[in-house]
Amino acid sequence: MNNWTLQKKWTYSAAISIFISFLAMCIILYFSIFNWMLISEKKIAQNTLNEVVGFFESRGPIISIQDIQRNKTLLNQLVNQEQSVRILNSDGIEILRINDASDFPNFSSEVAFEFELQNINNKLLYHNTAEIDFGSFVGYLEISHSLQNFSQLMNYILIAMIIFALIALVLSAFIGYSLSTILLKPLKELRDEMQEANQYKFSKEITFQYTNNDEIGELLTIYKQLMNEVSETITKQDEFIHNVSHELRTPIQVVEGHLSLLNRWGKNDKIVLEESLEISLSEIQKMKKMIEEMLKLAKRENSNEVLETDVSKVLLGLQKKYKSLKPEVTIIIASDLDEVLPVPQTALEQIIQNLIDNAIKYNENKPEINIEVTKSNLYYVISIEDNGVGISQKHLPKIFERFYKVDASRTKIKGGSGLGLSIVHALVKEYNGIIKVESKEHYGTKFNILFPKMTNE
Ligand code: ADP
């Protein structure tokens, strides 16, 4: 069953369900007809019995056996073609038999008040015995009503129903197959499209067209979204690998250059040795930092942390940390928020720390950073404003890109990798937030981070 195609499953289930419903209907119908006809047959037999008894009663209170025999022709007309009637004396000896269409069971003097269904010589019949008392004659009247015609008719009906059921089975299989072919066609086309996409390593455009708003339409929409995401991820990955290799190649080349310099003739020159070692170490430090940041970025993408953080606690913690690490930096916090933010603590710490680091790094004054936390109808807002060098308008749209540096030489001096803001951006986005930046060269920069309020508020 597991290996069956959807079409096969569909065809079989449609055929079986239609067939079973038809069969159930036939069985109900057959037994209803059976019972109804059996009751009618019983009524006919009962009528004949009443008419024969009535006939004798109409002949007067005293009739002899000769009278009865004389009236045989008249009695014959009362009795139906499928019936036999016989009159027996009190000893059970048959005196008169009218019609011989149906057999009688062995005589028994027990009188039944109802017609009984009996099977004699494999023939179904209704049988009844009544006592008769005509004054000069006392005996029994027996009536046997053959159900041969009824059995034949029921057999015909049964055969007809079996034939119809078989036709229904074939027809339902055919309908099931045709329906599944029509309905599964777009699904098959979508499957082919997916196979092709896989074959062309997701670089092929989706050509499959389907406008209906049903499950297949939904599947196509999801598939398109998925494909866009996949190709976007592939592009980003390519770009990332390109950038990483480029960024790492430079320091490696520098280190390599200095080491070969030392290898050739610098070993004995103390000045060259010291300078080369210092540069190499600093380049290695840079590489280390860059690799750490890249790892953080990659780790973030799979994180699974608790989405509740007390922002004031995080800010106070960072303020304390910078006070001891960099006493020249002033961090002013204004927060009246007594609620928690829908972001994990480590993520929020990393976001704010990266922004503070930049505010200190890209600053030619004594760094002063103002952090304010507020809330609007829909968002919690964290603003981080510095008095640094600022960013010109033409660079602003690009600063969140990976490895983007406004001023490569300045960044180099400051030990930046161009990854800090892209980490911030990725984190904010991951928790459904928005990051905005406004800046004025030589005056400072302000980052606004907006996190949506929880939906149950
Ligand atoms: P890095 O990790 O090298 O600092 P970022 O991604 O954090 O790189 O920043 C990208 C660029 O944006 C930096 O090269 C820097 O010129 C500029 N920048 C970032 N933050 C600030 C800021 N607060 N003030 C001025 N320039 C900034």
Automatic annotation (TrEMBL):
Q: What is this protein called?
A: histidine kinase
Keyword Secreted in annotation: no
Q: How does it sit in the membrane?
A: Multi-pass membrane protein
Per the UniProt record, which EC number(s) apply here? Answer: 2.7.13.3
User: Where are the membrane-spanning stretches?
Assistant: 12-33, 156-179
Question: What species is this protein from?
Answer: Psychrobacillus insolitus
Q: Name one GO cellular component term.
A: plasma membrane
Q: Where is the Histidine kinase domain?
A: 243-455
**GO MF entries:** ATP binding; phosphorelay sensor kinase activity
Q: Does the keyword Phosphoprotein apply?
A: yes
Per its record, the protein catalyses:
ATP + protein L-histidine = ADP + protein N-phospho-L-histidine
Looking at the record's lineage, which domain of life comes first?
Bacteria
